[in-house]
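Hi Q.,

Before the meeting this afternoon, I wanted you to have the calcium ion prediction in hand. No need to reply - just skim if you have a minute. The sequence and ligand are here:
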Amino acid sequence: MARQGKKSRDGTRWERALERAHLGVWDWDLRTGDCFYSATWARMLGYSQDELANTSDLWFRLTHPDDRERALASGDRHIAGLTDAIETELRLKHKQGHWVWVLDRGGIVERDAAGRPLRLMGVQTDISRQKAAEAELEQVNVRFRLALAASGTGIWHHDIATRKSYWDTRTREIFGLVADTDEVSADLWHTYLHPDDKEATERVHQVSLGTDTIIASQYRIVRRDGCVRHVESLVRFIAAGEAGQILGTVRDITEDKLREQELAYAARHDALTGLLNRAAFDRLLADHIATGAPLAVFYVDLDYFKALNDFAGHAAGDLALKSVAAGIGRCLPPSAHAARLGGDEFALLVPDCDAAEAERLAGAILAAVRDADLGLAATSRRLAASIGIAIVHDRLTTVADALACADDACYAAKAAGRDRFALFSADAASGSGGLNAARLAADTVDAMEDGRLKLFGQQIHRLGRPWQENRHVEVLARLDGKGGRLIPPGEFIPAAERFGIAARLDRWIIRTALSRHGAAMKSGAVTLGFNLSAQTLSDPGLWDFVDRIIEETGAPHQGIGFEITETAAVTNFDAAETFVRKARERRCRVSLDDFGAGMSSFEYLRRFPVDAIKIDGSFIEHITESRFDREIVLAITSIARSLGCAVVAEKIERQDTVAMLRDMGVEFGQGFLLHRPEPLQHIVSHAAGPAREAAAREAS
Ligand code: C2E
Ligand code: CA
Ligand code: CA
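Predicted structure with the ligand bound:
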């Protein structure tokens, strides 16, 4: 009743204040057990005042079951005198069913004479919004801590006024610091810095006080056990405490760094050999050329590698490549760089290297390749290299040019017989064919090995008579080019001569033709004429070779003829004389080829007692129109007759030419009119058949 009476002007005013402040008031009389709840309290929960019964347990019934115990305990503790006031947070059920968080504060307002509490009053404030904000913040915190933990980030701060530093657990872990507290001495951090990074890092960490820029950096630390770690750091100033703080994060990025380095390494290196790859080599070479200092570029191409790979398998091939790479590496000065360009090709870059030094190095590399460990699977195999060297002085040289020059020289080395080096010479490359010639020569060498060098033949006729009476065939080489095109000897023979492989080529032709057709020759089906290059003419081992082949194949000496060009004979006079003598000893036939083209004196004919003279095709092809050509042919023919040698006219393409030549006393001829060159095999197998037929006809 008293309370009702207090509903004065003051009371109303309080009511309004409470209303504004969203405060609900409760007033509990312990003697009667009555509890009064203010209208503001009821409204806080969505009720009008008269909707709720003013029972002492009203609030309790509306309290969330989880909060009841705590709320009761708070009241009990206060009543028992353990606390100065009731202060608790609890949830009350709103009329609409949801929970309203309230802060309940109150206490004893009246006691009896003995000090026993008679009446309690309290105020409840709606703190739902605050609670929601708290919950949200907590969630953010949880997430933040999770993110920190996941990223392995440590946090530290330094208080500027107190000069104290604090490292969290993770920071201490990163630095390998064992300590129980966060506080560390202010200069501790500096003692961890890697000497090479110290200065720069300390400079970066001088954050500008008062600003809010975040400074990021990476540096290395050396842990107490000597282990080096890479750290990524963020630092900023915050206005906290008296003079502010420097707040920072650290993250150990050592693994990332290693992976980064590995990736960068992989991007620049060949996985198998560990040498540089082509792209990295090109960049390095460009940089070196740009300095203008003389340098040597080596192009190293392995010989017999494909055979090794085929024979012993890829594993053996890989082992060989690794071993070669290691061997090359051991030969090189520290300033040099080696790359694997792919397959079995390598490139080297040697700074400050002149020709003499380059040649010495090349010799060492050749030896290293020969000594390369090929593994058990390939012990019977051998490996060699062809090395081309280009010396670059001019800073305007492009990388492509430098490599092309070395490549060109490498082809020359290959063509000259492999297992050797060649120094690039501008003369060799700028001459006929240049780079292509070198390539063609090298391709010719390969063709001999992989069956792309083909034997063709062209019949030589006694004019007016069937070939069967004569049966002589000139052997002509053809190169089955890599694109499938048949390359005529006019293209690859000059290249072979220039790169010193013509003698090998001739031997190959002789060996191959005799071993395939030796039997047919023995039976008298054909005789073969071989073209010889000037190099073969002066090959001192030639006749030993021919003798051996003849012995092996059973081809008769008389069935074999050699054609040496007039020019070759004249320019290798002694060699040609010896050659002709030895041929005669063996009753092999010799023809002087392309006669007239060299325009040398007939005088030479006396010195070479050859069996036949082949008049160069250029005098024959227009003979019906050219009096000059006729005169030449007549002169040659009469001299030949006086010397007792036969005359062969080349390039007979028309019937009237045949008649004219016969009138002039030319006995033999060859040309497209009489027979177009075709695979030697065809000619021989045809000859072997009709030979018997002809013999049979004669016998009958
Ligand atoms: P060569 O010794 O004068 O051979 C005759 C060349 O004239 C052959 O050219 C032949 O195909 C071509 N020929 C024949 N009849 C006619 C014709 O009626 N008209 C025309 N326009 N050409 C005709 P091929 O086979 O291209 O050979 C060119 C040269 O290459 C040969 O000239 C020879 O000097 C050389 N050669 C061919 N094979 C070999 C070889 O195995 N070793 C060496 N060292 N040289 C070879
Ligand atoms: Ca010839
Ligand atoms: Ca000729």
